Amino acid sequence: MELSTWLTFFAASWAISISPGPAAIASMSAGLNHGFRRGYVLIFGLVLGIWTQVLIVGVGLGALVAASSTAFTVVKWLGVVYLVYLGITQWRAPVRPWVALADAPVFVSQRAMILRAWMINAFNPKGTMFLLAVVPQFMHLSQPLVPQYLIIGVTLGFTDLVVMAGYTALAARVLGALKEPSHIRVMNRTLGSLFVIAGSLLALFKRAA
What pLDDT is recorded for position 21? Predict the structure, then answer.
């Protein structure tokens, strides 16, 4: 991949990462519930999800998902159900004022956080469709494809690590200042509702004709 091509893709990857979506909601939820240091672990799962999508597109399975109505529907509804599940879980999350977390933290295993985040990005057919539409514009088919996919995967992973860190830090800093249980409850339900809305929007998403 030529430097000029990579720089264009690098700029585009920032726009991709910054645009609000389930990953951003998950990052803010992690910052609210676990603080920045523990919440940031979730972002590695998001990146693994992105790499899974790049791998799916790279080996040709993305085209299968795009062409097969059954495969597309299965992947889509897995994503919908999972996002709605996350929304209900966040909505029903116990009210824990941030000031109490330092003395009595509620730990969630890092493996569980990473798996949760991986599923958010891996089971998202919109991501597959997006990569199928965008990635070929930056590929040189006459050159080896594997190195190009590696560069694309690393670039998307890097920008997501930085951008989602910002979302997590914002939640941990701003929302962490909340002390009233009613405020925490409102934020939990707001984030939970955003998950459900994201799932609903995914349910409406259709394959390109």
Answer: 80
Q: Which residues, at least 6 apart from 68, have a Cβ–Cβ distance to it below 8 Å?
A: none
Query: Residue 102 carries which DSSP code?
Result: T
Q: Where are the domains of the chain?
A: 24-204
> Half-sphere exposure (CA, 13 Å, Cβ side) for 207?
16
Separation CA 59–CA 37 (nearest Å) = 35
Helix (H) or strand (E) holding 205: none
Q: Which two tokens stand for residue 5?
A: 């091509």
The per-residue pLDDT for 63 is 66
- Cβ-based neighbours of 45, under 8 Å, separated by 6 or more: 113, 114, 115, 116, 117, 118, 120, 121
CB 125 within 8 A of CB 56: no
